[in-house]
Write a structure and sequence with these properties.
The protein is mostly helical and about 110 residues long. About 70% of the residues lie in helices and about 0% in strands.
């Protein structure tokens, strides 16, 4: 009756012909109850899937933050260890790059997406 994976499923409504009176004289038949129950279960399953997806994305945003911090510390360590000016300049640039990436990711991940 409905395509559950299509774009715009959040505004899913029952087709007009299911809402028109006259096709069934009994106001609430067993068939109506089953149909509405199935529709509700499909909607609940979609809601559960999207809730799970949101939790997964929020959790996945945590790992790049750790990786960026690790890289920042690694390049800071390399800066301290190596005494050559060219190597130190490159390490300082890399350390600053990873710090900026981490800061941007933290700022973006704090936004409310919903």
């Amino acid at each position: 009756m409905t395509e559950e994976n299509r774009v715009g499923q959040g505004s899913e409504v029952l087709p007009w012909f299911w809402q028109v009176g006259g096709w069934n004289t009994d106001p609430r038949s067993e068939w109506d109850d089953k149909f509405l129950r199935v529709s509700w279960l499909k909607a609940k399953a979609r809601c559960d899937r999207w809730s799970e997806e949101l939790r997964m994305v929020q959790h996945e945003m945590f790992w790049p933050t750790l990786w960026f911090k690790h890289q920042e510390r690694e390049w800071e360590r390399r800066f301290m260890v190596n005494g050559k000016p060219g190597h130190q300049a490159y390490a300082a640039k890399q350390q600053a790059l990873w710090e900026i990436l981490g800061r941007r990711l933290r700022r973006v991940s704090k936004r409310k997406w919903l």
